[in-house]
Amino acid sequence: MKLLNHTLLYLSASLVLILSIWAVVFYFSMMEEVYDSIDDGLENYKMLIIKKANRDSTLLQKSRFDESNYAIRPIDREFALQATEEFKDTSIYMEYEEDYEIVRMLTTYFSTPQAEYYELKIITSMVEGDDLVADLLHALLWLYVAVIASAFIINNWVLRKIWSPFYQLQSELRGFRLGEDKIFQPPQTRVREFQDMNHTVAELLRANIAVFQQQKQFIENASHELQTPLAIAINKLELLLEQSPEKNGQAQLLANAIHYLERMTRLNKSLLLLSKIENRQFSKEELVNFNERLRGQVDDFEELLLYRNIHLKMIENAVLTRRFNGDLADVLITNLLKNAIVHNHEGGRVIITVGNDGFEIANTGKQQPLDSEKMFTRFYRSADQSSSTGLGLAVVKAIAQLYQAEVGYRYEDGLHRLYFRLTHLM
Amino acid sequence: MKILIIEDEQGLRDNITQFLQKEQYIVEAAADFRSAMEKIALYDYDCILLDVGLPDGNGLNLLRTLKSKQKRDNVIIISAKDSLDDKLEGLDLGADDYLTKPFHLAELNARIKAVLRRKALDGRNVVKLNNMELDFNGRTLSVDGVEIHLNRKEFDILAFFVVNKNRLIYKSALAEHVWGDHMDNADNFDFIYSQIKNLRRKLKDHGANLEIQAIYGVGYKLTV
């Protein structure tokens, strides 16, 4: 839910409550005022009638309301003495409305100078409570709608204006990727809170970039520094190997040690390659014909394919040429081809399809789809391939990212298919 | 043949020295830029192995000096950096080859021999062994004067054995030399074995007089 709608939601919810309470209070205080003034009017009327009745005794005969709004009837002295004056709401039939309507009635008692006791009832028309409530509700509803509508408009306008640095920051951050060379530019604003936030975010990113760079630098330096000792150790073992008797298994042990040092060397080289790709150190580009390179590499794998009895077919639907770094194109193809051969089975198939926007290498292998999420992450390898570095496809992914190409996996028709699609045109 | 090793890492220097002495070369070594400069100024070498990352100076400057003095010493650059720019710069400056650490000693041996062969006086670039003759320019093999067809990789395998004759060749040194990066999987010994078996049969069929001996789990040895 957007920030704007959030404030509006809270505002409208609290407005419902506030306006309802306000309406109740307003209704009762208004009604009180209305009763007060009506009762005052009735009181005044009472005095006028009594005065008039004292002068004109015919008035005392008026026992029905009829056309006027009072009625007088004689009562017992005892009753009169204990009765008290009383205002009350009652209903009477109104000719005009053709219905019973609520009226305010004052019932009072008085005595003439002749000590005769009378009951006087005076009525006056009343505010119609239910109509008033309805009117009030109606007005309230409109008020509510008007308030919410104006709140929405003002909010929309003001929030948009006030929060614009926030939205700018948001879009800046959305486009930010750690490891890309893009410099983070916090938006300019005069609002202190946003200035603070921008500052904090900028600081945080700077620290993160620094750590990231350091880490990359570390991996690069560590791999680089390891090359020499590894070289020395491997060469020393090779020298020793030459001097070892071949029969008693010593040479085999040494060969084994070399094998593991070589594995470490490969790991190291791959890590170095990865950080070089990520640091964009392969800037030199040339027009690369992928068909030619694929054919060349297939040739290099020829003996291995033959040995493992794997049938390779290359389908060239188009000639794929792009500006690309030559070395990276070779690494890309090598890694994908090697992958298709290594994870294959005796007598399997490899099918290379070249289109005008990329190529796909499909191979037979295990009869179940692989985890396409994990396969491109570093050091992911299937259980039966313990000697691989687990970096081959990570390198492929890094190359793809460098060229904004799409690399992916799907399992279809019993074939594991890895595709590399170049989205940009040359 | 005189060879100068310019390398600041003692371990590597010792390894190369020990290995090359067995090839009957006269081997000298320099551990830093200054002493290397001295040696280059005073003597001529058939081949110089040059580490570009020296602590007291860039090895490429040594190469520049060498070339500016019109010296004909062959230079193989050894670098821990697998960087194309370095490689290109080195080769542009007149280096004959470029090798990245870590490398197999057999590979270094093959590179040195190739460089020396190319610069040999007769320029024929041919190696003779028993009744065989390997022509590196034409990449052909002839046995008793009869040319035998070898494909690119068969020739590479044989050439690697020939230049490293009487030495134990570790299996992955051979694999890397012939197949490069395409062949770094551990369980490829059987595969290499089958390739060598084919080559052996071919050589035997044509009456070549040599024996490639397999040492199980380790590698091969061409004995003459």
Automatic annotation (TrEMBL), chain A:
Q: Which UniProt keywords apply?
A: Kinase, Membrane, Phosphoprotein, Transferase, Transmembrane, Transmembrane helix
Residue limits of the Histidine kinase domain? 221-426
State the InterPro entries in the record. HATPase_C_sf (IPR036890), HATPase_dom (IPR003594), His_kinase_dom (IPR005467), HisK_dim/P_dom (IPR003661), HisK_dim/P_sf (IPR036097), TCS_sensor_his_kinase (IPR050428)
The record lists the membrane-crossing segments as 7-28, 139-159
Output the superkingdom of the source species.
Bacteria
Q: Does the keyword Iron-sulfur apply?
A: no
Its Gene Ontology molecular function terms? kinase activity
Q: Which EC numbers characterise this protein's activity in its record?
A: 2.7.13.3
User: What class does this enzyme belong to in the EC scheme?
Assistant: transferase
Q: Which SMART domains does the UniProt entry name for this protein? A: HATPase_c, HisKA
Q: Which reaction does it catalyse?
A: ATP + protein L-histidine = ADP + protein N-phospho-L-histidine
PANTHER family linked: SENSOR HISTIDINE KINASE TRCS, SENSOR HISTIDINE KINASE YKOH
Q: What is this protein called?
A: histidine kinase
Native source organism of the sequence: Parapedobacter defluvii
Automatic annotation (TrEMBL), chain B:
Record-annotated Response regulatory domain positions: 2-116
**Record PROSITE patterns:** OMPR_PHOB (PS51755), RESPONSE_REGULATORY (PS50110)
Give the originating organism.
Answer: Parapedobacter defluvii
| Residue ranges occupied by any OmpR/PhoB-type domain in the UniProt entry | 124-224
4-aspartylphosphate PTM positions = 51
Give the keywords, sorted. DNA-binding, Phosphoprotein, Transcription, Transcription regulation, Two-component regulatory system
Can you name this protein? DNA-binding response regulator
DNA-binding region range list: 124-224
Instruction: Show the GO MF annotations.
Output: DNA binding
Entry's PANTHER family? REGULATOR OF RPOS
Query: Could you tell me the superkingdom of the organism this chain comes from?
Result: Bacteria
Query: Is Transcription regulation among this UniProt entry's keywords?
Result: yes
Keyword Disulfide bond set for record: no
Q: Which InterPro entries match?
A: CheY-like_superfamily, OmpR/PhoB-type_DNA-bd, Sig_transdc_resp-reg_receiver, WalR-like, WH-like_DNA-bd_sf
